[in-house]
Every structure is written in C-alpha cells, then in structure tokens.
Amino acid sequence: MTQTPPPWGTQRMGPYAATTSVPQYTPVIDPETQIAVIVDEHGRTVDLGSHGTSTSGLTPTTTAPGDGAGPGTATDADSTESYDQDQSSD
C-alpha cells in the first residue's frame, strides 16, 4: 500500500508573523455638539488627526446643430467632472 503525499502548498507554509493587538475605538455622538467623536475602550476621546473634505460634481453638456430654425439631425453630449478638495493639515 502506498502513502499519499501531502499537498505541495503545505510544505511551503511557515509560521504566521507576530501580531499586535489593536485598541478598540468606538464612534459616538457628542450630546452637546451633535458631532461624532471617537472614544477608546476607557471612554477617552481620541484625536485621529485632521482630514479634509471634498466635493465632486458631474456637469452635463449638450450641443445642437444650427440656429434652431430648422430640424436638427445630430446632437453631441458629454459631461465634465469637477473635483474640489479643501486644505487638510496633516
């Protein structure tokens, strides 16, 4: 009777890298300001650093041939995307 060899991938495996525990943060609403804040497992507010906000918009554009006095045949349409980002202090 022959023995089945182990799958090739199991021979290449090694131990997992050392891991560290990640602190638990919870988002909550501040009852006075009605703004979301992040607190740690001890109830202390955590500052996650500042980040900016941005807006994005899609502006459609269309063109029609002629001056509108006669029936038009072809039209052309496309859109332009705009993206604005405010200053962020890192």
From TrEMBL:
<dbReference type="InterPro" id="IPR025843">
    <property type="entry name" value="Actino_peptide"/>
</dbReference>
<feature type="compositionally biased region" description="Acidic residues">
    <location>
        <begin position="78"/>
        <end position="90"/>
    </location>
</feature>
<dbReference type="Pfam" id="PF14408">
    <property type="entry name" value="Actino_peptide"/>
</dbReference>
<feature type="region of interest" description="Disordered">
    <location>
        <begin position="46"/>
        <end position="90"/>
    </location>
</feature>
<feature type="compositionally biased region" description="Low complexity">
    <location>
        <begin position="49"/>
        <end position="77"/>
    </location>
</feature>
<protein>
    <submittedName>
        <fullName>Putative ATP-grasp-modified RiPP</fullName>
    </submittedName>
</protein>
<dbReference type="InterPro" id="IPR026496">
    <property type="entry name" value="GRASP_targ"/>
</dbReference>
